[in-house]
Amino acid sequence: MALRDPAQAQGICLPRCLAAAAASLTLAACVAGPAPEIATPPPALPDAFFFAPDEAVSSEVAALLPAEDPAFVVLASAAIADSPTLAEALARIDGARAQAERAGAERLPNVTADASVVRNRINPAQFGDAGAGFIPEVQTSYGANLTASWDPDIFGQLRAQERAAIARIDSASASALAVRNALLAEIAGSVIDWRTLSARQTALEQDVAAATRLVDLSRVREEAGIAPGFDRVRAQAAASASRSRLATLESERARLIGRLVALTAASAGEVSAALARTDQAMTLTQPPAALPSELLANRPDVLAAAAELAATDADLAAASRARFPRLTLSAVVGLLAFDPEDFFDDDSFVSTLAASVAAPLFDFGRIEAEIDGAAANKRIAFQAYRGAVFEALGEAEEAYGLIAAADAEAELAARESDELERAARLANVRFSAGLSNFLEVLEARRAADASGERAAAAIGRAERARILLWQALGGNAAEEDESRADNAQAL
């Protein structure tokens, strides 16, 4: 019987192997069922916010930030450039991008090269007397191989893993935007608190000046024998109360500087210099009208939760497809010789072409457990997504409500301050005309002293409420969309 050429035998065997593999794949596809279906309906949101302002308001979300304040501009730029918290979040994007690149590379062929020199020493006597003269005792082989293998991913497991990795890039990017928004909101709030302290200081200094004038007046009256020394003591007590409240502002300033140092990674001197820039008049911007549905597109934490849900869905698909067989195609081309001079001869050429199929047969529930775990992770991600949506809705409702309440409080506090200052001036006029006593002047002054500081604090709270609304609505959507585009281009 004639021997068949090895290349011809290989050409006949390979189609048979592929046919057997196709039959196995078909059988496995019939046996394995689809991935479990987990419903993820979109959360039902109301048509409008309960505390939303008039729809005629056309202000932008970005206008809620104190963007015209030079201190905020300087400190925000410093934080974005060098904040450790933000740098950590951006590094997580790089990590997620690396995972996605690795998942995409798994779908491509893997080509390796190797070279070897092997020296073997044997005992020819083990082959009997015949081998002692014909089999060398020491044998050296020289080899070089180029190996390629590829998984065609017939059932899409690798594609599903790549989709999951790409979705986690979106999740990491949205989480970084959430960190950025929180950072800017904290800086804006701290700057507003600093400006509020300045306004309170101005009001308290005016109170101290007015109380000091009363002390001087009472001293003159006491020295003239017109009034008892008790009036002077009460006037001095009122002035001391204003000075005491003025002194407490320094501890609040120290707290704000320490907080801004942590947020911006700048020194206390740099933070103090930025805050010392020209103060801007605190103005109450009208809150913009928005729809609850816009939270789904603008809130970074909602976008991150949605991306994580998409990633877990792809994880579930990949786990389910592990029940199917995997086809691997491989080839090896190399050179093998026992003498360096014969290394590139035609006889030293060797090659191998193989196709293999591996499928689970009896795994005793391992794959099913993986599928159940992936399904549970998807349910967890869906509930986390719903939680992020309703947390965003609640924060936006709260911010709108706080703005309405804080604006009303600021308006009433300013009116109260004006009225009490007018009452104090009238008390002075009546006292000068001899129509009232010094006690009425002192009481009127004491009431007016506290009102100016309360009005400044109320305006500060109204400004603070606008920062909460800015963050609740997702921050500057245009800048976030640009950041997402930059991340996409970087892939």
Walk me through this protein's architecture.
The protein is α+β, with helices and mostly antiparallel strands. It has one domain (40-107, 155-324, 369-489): Outer membrane efflux proteins (OEP) (Up-down Bundle). It is 65% helix and 10% strand. The chain has twelve helices and four strands. The protein has helices at residues 6-31, 70-82, 84-105, 129-134, 157-223, 229-264, 268-275, 295-298, 300-320, 366-432, 438-472, 477-489; strands at residues 110-121, 138-150, 326-337, 349-358. Strands 1-2-3-4 form a four-stranded antiparallel sheet. Helix 2 packs antiparallel against helix 5 (157-223), helix 5 (157-223) packs antiparallel against helix 9 and helix 6 (229-264) runs parallel beside helix 11. The longest helix is centred in the middle third of the chain and has 67 residues, at 157-223.
Question: Could you provide a short overview of the structure?
Answer:
This protein is an alpha+beta fold and 491 residues long. 65% of the residues lie in helices and 10% in strands.
| Total E-strand runs | 4
Helical element count? 12
* Unreliable runs: 1-14, 27-31, 480-485, 487-491
- The pLDDT mean sits at 82
Strand content: 5-15%
H/E element string?
Answer: HHHEHEHHHHHEEHHH
Kindly name the structural category: alpha+beta
The CATH class, by name, is: Mainly Alpha
Q: Give the overall shape.
A: elongated
- How far apart, in Å, are the first and last alpha carbons? 61 Å
**CATH topology descriptor:** Outer membrane efflux proteins (OEP)
Describe the main β-sheet briefly: 4 strands, antiparallel
Specify Rg, calculated over alpha carbons: 39 Å
CATH homologous group name: Outer membrane efflux proteins (OEP)
CATH architecture: Up-down Bundle
Spatial strand sequence of the major β-sheet: 1-2-3-4
Number of domains: 1
* Helical content band: 55-70%
